[in-house]
Design brief:
The chain is an all-alpha fold. The protein is built from five helices and no strands. The chain is rod-shaped.
């Protein structure tokens, strides 16, 4: 249909390339890799990191208090360390929530894809008077194209979540680009 974005149509036609089964397989593989590998991995990493950060907090807090009481650090340094400790716990807690959001996004995209293909087929047949085969081919291409257009950014976001969750540094001077390549 002419009302559909050229990007969605191009993605769909490129991935299908005349064979709807291959297009559906390519799309399914991308969705499964995003959901089962990247998103689930990122979610698990952030859950574990958040749990470890929270579990270690009392011990780290007691170490700060012990250093302060023994005179190894002054009150200003103790406040600085407590703030850093609080910031670390907040970061991992936020990453845990963000990874759950990314996982929900991946699951929602699968549901939306199923709704698009069924709804598109029904609209084509009953409202646009298309034949069954033409409606199926048209809306399969459009659904796969729309799914790919949505899955590529979702895969990038899920990957970035995993990178941020697994690549942290104590040296704040280290730049993000060097974190990505190590």
């Amino acid at each position: 249909p002419s009302a559909v974005s050229d990007i969605i149509t191009a993605f769909g036609e490129f991935s299908v390339s005349g064979n709807y089964v291959i297009g559906a397989i390519i799309f399914s593989i991308l969705v499964l890799v995003n959901l089962l590998v990247v998103t689930n991995g990122s979610t698990r990493v952030t859950e574990v990191r958040a749990r470890f950060a929270l579990d270690a907090m009392p011990g780290k807090q007691m170490a700060i208090d012990a250093d302060l009481n023994s005179g190894l650090i002054d009150d200003k340094e103790a406040k600085k360390r407590r703030a850093a400790l609080s910031q670390e716990a907040d970061f991992y807690g936020a990453m845990d929530g963000a990874s759950k959001f990314v996982k929900g996004d991946a699951i929602a995209s699968i549901i939306i894809t199923l709704i698009n293909i069924i709804g598109g087929f029904l609209v084509g047949v009953f409202q646009r008077d298309m034949s069954l085969s033409f409606s199926a081919s048209t809306f399969t291409i459009l659904t796969i194209g729309d799914g790919l257009v949505g899955q590529i950014p979702a895969l990038i976001i899920a990957t970035a979540t995993g990178i941020v969750a697994t690549r942290t540094t104590q040296n704040e001077e280290e730049d993000f680009a060097s974190k990505l390549i190590t």
